[in-house]
Description:
Two copies of one chain form a homodimer.
Chain A: H1 2-10, H2 29-39, E1 61-70, E2 74-81, E3 83-88, E4 100-103, E5 106-115, E6 122-126, E7 137-139, E8 145-146, E9 173-176, E10 180-184, E11 187-203, E12 209-216, H3 219-223, E13 230-236, E14 240-243, E15 248-251, E16 257-258, E17 263-274, E18 280-286, E19 295-298, H4 301-317, H5 334-345, H6 351-362, H7 375-392, H8 395-413, E20 444-445, H9 446-465, H10 469-490, E21 491-492, E22 497-498, E23 501-503, E24 506-507, H11 513-521, H12 527-538, H13 549-561, H14 565-581, H15 620-628, E25 631-635, E26 640-643, E27 652-659, E28 662-669, E29 672-677, E30 683-687, E31 690-694, E32 699-703
Parallel strand pairs in A: 26-30
Antiparallel strand pairs in A: 1-5, 1-7, 2-4, 2-6, 3-5, 7-8, 9-18, 10-11, 11-16, 11-17, 11-18, 12-13, 12-17, 13-14, 14-15, 19-27, 20-23, 21-22, 23-24, 25-26, 27-28, 28-29, 29-32, 30-31
Helix pairs in contact in A: 2-6, 4-14, 5-6, 5-7, 5-15, 6-7, 7-8, 7-9, 8-9, 9-10, 9-11, 11-12, 11-13, 13-14
Amino acid sequence: MKHYFLSLICCVAMAMPAAAQSWIWYPGDMDIWTGNRINNLRSERGSFYPAFWRADSHEQTVEFVRTVTLDAPEEMEIHVEGDYGVRIDELDYLFGMPGRFTVPAGRHTLHIAVHNSEAVPALWLKGPSVVSDTTWTVTNYAEPRRADTWTERDGSPTFPLPDLRPSSYRLPVTPVLPASVRREGRELFAEWQREGIGYLLLEGVRGNGRVCISYGESPDEARDSAHAYLTDCVVFSADSVTDLATLRVSARNGSDYRLACSRAMRYVLVVCEGDVTVEGLTLLFEMKDVRLSGSFECSDTLLNRIWQVGAYTLHLTDREVMIEGIKRDRWMWSGDAIQSYLMNYYSFMDTPVVRRTVWALRGKDPVRQHINTILDYTFFWFNAVYDYYLYTGDDAFVRRIYPRMQTLMDYVQGRLNDRGMVEGRSGDWVFVDWSPRDMSKDGELAFEQLVYMRSLQTMQLCAALTGNDADALRYGTLFGRLRGCILPTFWDERRGLLVHHTRGGIPQQEVTRYANIFAVLYGLLDERRSASVLERVLLNDSVMEITTPYMRFYELEALCALGRQSQVLDEMRAYWGGMLSQGATTFWETYDPKEGYPERLAMYGKRYGKSLCHAWGASPLYLLGKYFLGVRPVKPGYAEWECRPCLGDLKWMKGDVPTPHGRIHVEMTRKSVTVEAEGCGPGRLILGDKEVAVHPGERITVRR
Amino acid sequence: MKHYFLSLICCVAMAMPAAAQSWIWYPGDMDIWTGNRINNLRSERGSFYPAFWRADSHEQTVEFVRTVTLDAPEEMEIHVEGDYGVRIDELDYLFGMPGRFTVPAGRHTLHIAVHNSEAVPALWLKGPSVVSDTTWTVTNYAEPRRADTWTERDGSPTFPLPDLRPSSYRLPVTPVLPASVRREGRELFAEWQREGIGYLLLEGVRGNGRVCISYGESPDEARDSAHAYLTDCVVFSADSVTDLATLRVSARNGSDYRLACSRAMRYVLVVCEGDVTVEGLTLLFEMKDVRLSGSFECSDTLLNRIWQVGAYTLHLTDREVMIEGIKRDRWMWSGDAIQSYLMNYYSFMDTPVVRRTVWALRGKDPVRQHINTILDYTFFWFNAVYDYYLYTGDDAFVRRIYPRMQTLMDYVQGRLNDRGMVEGRSGDWVFVDWSPRDMSKDGELAFEQLVYMRSLQTMQLCAALTGNDADALRYGTLFGRLRGCILPTFWDERRGLLVHHTRGGIPQQEVTRYANIFAVLYGLLDERRSASVLERVLLNDSVMEITTPYMRFYELEALCALGRQSQVLDEMRAYWGGMLSQGATTFWETYDPKEGYPERLAMYGKRYGKSLCHAWGASPLYLLGKYFLGVRPVKPGYAEWECRPCLGDLKWMKGDVPTPHGRIHVEMTRKSVTVEAEGCGPGRLILGDKEVAVHPGERITVRR
């Protein structure tokens, strides 16, 4: 154990500590494998419902290699996930799968071959002077790489001990009793304080028969067993229990039964058939043990509740990987994930989950389709890598993922049209947003060119960062060229806005908010054009409104970027406050104040198809942190940062923004601003024309 | 069951029957998965010893799709390997993983999504008018394909019934008692009549302690527990048995224990430690249930024994896939496999194993390295596909594998040198042969160009066959161009032979047999050059001799092609007869009559490293069938064929050559030849200048 604690002490930075004892594997494989596992948890009315894009596999057979120089013979302890063989130098493999073996003194190369088709081949090894860590090489016998592992936010290994087997990584569970349980004949109806996800525990089950369960994010859903999105059914016989959703049969031990699948719920209806009875219910609540490092409080209690409910919504969807919602898909979606990451940088600063989700979304080479099959989601994937670097400064990760960025960009460029622009091709889903009315998806969408342009810029930056100068030049040129054509192609000077798309290079009349929003966010518009877009698009009710928190994220960000903070607060009060006024304990996938109950629960043609705990609903976390507390990194990992606080119509606000090195604390009233930073580099407090340097550890107060 | 038998009756041809009820899966996945499983069975002294090239994985998540039109509602019975969901049309998935479901009358599309990371996602489905068969589509959500299955030699499905789960496919076992068992104190030493492979059964085990086992292909090996290639060790305690090679722990039930791993053996030494005792031993012999359809008998009993031992050797290595030997690697090797296939066409005509091995060797796209990492083995892989087509006429298989041929050829062509020739690049193993003295492996080897040339010809033929006319033209041009440069580059007119290689385009002095042999076989040499090669290389003892049956296969074939049948018989008597005289019950990996015992057991620096049951040792099967019985297909699948029998120095011979449609029987004495063909197309009996037509079903006798 001595070694392990020593390593922890050495490595408080974000970068992966070279010398930390850990389980190790082939780069990205644990992320990809975990992503597959999570994507396969989706269920619809008790069915198995896999993701509809191709899933890459982990490497089945790998060899871990390390050369060591020992003063004396050393005994190694070894643990492996998979079948394995141990070879020293070019000598024979040792007998069987030894738990310990001795390496003679001198210089020797250890080879540990591992095969595992079901889970990721992984190694844990420990000797007096040698441990399994990321200095090892691991090869799939074609592409040798530096070994990979998972680390926590502080750089410490996630799997330091032999018993912490990577394949058994699961979120911890906590028993949570319902706020109320009503018994109605053969039925039990339970309600929890707020929405959660986990395994239902049936307590005090007696007799034989079927127990049918319908879960609900709303009471209507749980009570409507014929339409509830999530259902289960369990058959109790004298000595066995059969979980019909998974066909899992277990021996009947004791009187409690824990359901096989973790489900989202706030309400549960349990119906007993036959002579079976159930005494009580408990939710074994699955939730990641991650600390909320950001905070926000202000003079408006509604906004405070919005921030808290946003943080809870994000916490529920911040799991093994970032998922889009807990009830329905439970999948990783790249466009949703980039928003989760950004909210995360202003709340949990859970950086490991970002790395995992980015790898898992990307998968392996060759690229066969867009990420999640969606054109725009490929671009958001690129853009998320640069955001990650900017907020964390973790260039080691960028270096590891860069080869996958290259091959994905090659894929994109192999599908450009004659004018060097992107458009949907066979098999591509051009998503943009769920819109209340139809929008055109054919031809060159201005929105798609903008997010592609941003991806080229990301490639340029990451190429430079990883020392790929030729790439940086090439992507920089492509970026400049595309940037140069966007306004000439899509800007309608007469109407003072960007049109939605062109067909065969000819601009069409259709106008939507999307491209106009992103043109503002990516700094493409001068002051005159920005003002025009604000008036003629963003503040123009005749342009199709946005009803998803997904796209409202960008719309409100654009309004903030244009200095409309007070209006944004009003929008938050109306939109997110609207959800709260309807009893939300988590934020929703879409919200249209005009929709009544229970119609607003429907989506995708299903009565309860809408997700009521959807990560993209939590965007106030990001908006309040970045545009009100006003904190953002200027150099990667907050090596330099700035704070441009803005009260909007608030009397006061205070809060914390997490950084890789500590928090930045901001307090603001109408009279003064106080800023204090732990650990990070030099910052600047900017108030209008006034600019004050903030040194690490210092507490600066400025009167307005 | 009615349906199944009907299908069997419909499909006696090689082609996959469209309507046969069967388990189905994504194309090639069962072959690749099985190949991985087999390649991971290698063990060296109880170790796990995986293959050292990259293993592709099966598709983890797939969807099976079929549109049906039903007159009335039908109930479907469904069995799946993996987690699954069932969806009809665009409706919801059905609850759970239903064992039965009903499809309404009318036109509907069934969607069955399956996930399985450990084994291949597979489906078996049956309704009154719908069954799972190869008319289904299956997609990995990126590349939809026609569903795949395994069929037997007669076209019937290998997995017709729900209980015959593809992942549980194993060879049958038969108990075989040793010919003798000697007890020497705490040891048992057993000898079997001939070599075999399977699970050792320890019988009548009493008391506790360790039982250590060493296996041998020779008595020396089994007795030399410190060096035997295959070893096991089992610990018996009061209530459990631990198999140390696999770490498998099982409850101690009864007094017999079956070892966890199947091992090759003819001799076994069992050493008991502690107070454990073993009463007896049985080999649970694993052998494929495949009929020997070919035969050969002649006036020379030694040759008859050689043919029989060859057939037994091939039978032992013809398993789930064709492996190279049963003791050591137990891997699929492409260069070894092409010979196994050819021997197989003259003995077992086990065509399913050829399809499986070809797919398994090839794996998935992208190509990352040469097959088995060996340059020449990639070329033998191509050439095997055309051989398969020629002997079986199974164009359906060529159509399925052709896309993988294209991508592998793209890989080859991406690695040509400036002169359009192949040479070993980083990571490539240039093998050629195990030679008794060093040979150069750098530069352009004439041998490699020849096998590459043949691959281009194969591509041309298969492109034409599959209707890829542009490819056929392109590969035909490349073939012609390369064919045109071989003699100008490598033929040394002064010495009358092909030199071994060039460096930087300059011919070197070194001469080996390899290129000269293949130039004869591929018809590159006119009569004058052939005569020169025969005299100056093949019959010239100063050119490095060939000591592997692998390359002797081609050497003797070249001698046959040059009409030296009598000499070839003498070589067989000396070489294969030499092995028999040393007590062989199966043929060996290498044989050098000059080597004594026990030195001849050593190889790869290991005292018992040599494999004594090696598929490539069985080549007389091929040579006697093709060049003595003289039978060969002229059009694919024996649609036309010829018989050019040759007695050599024999008084008489008779035998059968299997074809996809029946056997061709040949009998020859010095006075007459009789030929009779079952089922196949028209044939010709050719005796010198004489040519006689042989019609199907007719028995033709010709006096000489």
